[in-house]
Amino acid sequence: MQIGVVIYEDNSDLRESLCNLVMFADNLLLLGNYARADEVVKQITGLEPDVILMDIDMPGINGIEAVKKIRQFNQQVQIIMLTVFDDSHHVLDAIYAGASGYLLKKYISDKLVDAISQVLQGEAPMSPGIARMVLQSMQQAIQPLANTYNLTQREKEILNNLSKGNSYKMIAADLAISIDTVRSHIKKIYEKLQVHSQVEAVAKAMNERLV
Known about the structure:
This protein is of the alpha/beta class. It has ten helices and five strands; from the N terminus they run βαβαβαβαβαααααα. The chain has a five-stranded parallel sheet, sandwiched between helices. It is globular and about 50 Å long.
């Protein structure tokens, strides 16, 4: 089954490159590409994509505002932000708006297809540097709390890997376990920490000095 993709990017050359990357991937189907997001509600409602590649800095409605509009009626579609910005302000704004992942444009040719695969598996693709920056920005000035979550040593190892921005595949290789086992551990981690996403889990672990 092919994965439907919609692209928002105001740079025509880059948008063409993105279209080519999607069209040449065996399991991806390009549903539409746009230079502006002014009609994003109508477009996404009509096309019903699985994944949206969203530029942050566009004329008219910018990418972050577009994500907010999408999340008002669609919580399932995966949205990967594409940008030249790597500062915490833009990263956090995108995440708070409802972005699923964050990819710097300089890595697009090498990372895009893998990022789409990761986000569809419930991961939050972003470079290790951005992942660390997000966690640091989300940390609160609180006293370290005791580990009352009964995390196993393996679960702590997986949390530590997540805090480094490692993908499920990388964690599986590092710990010599299967990806399905990684997913099973992460599900238990979510339950123990009472969180619902990878970003929340790692932020809580960092805040409470669990890793």
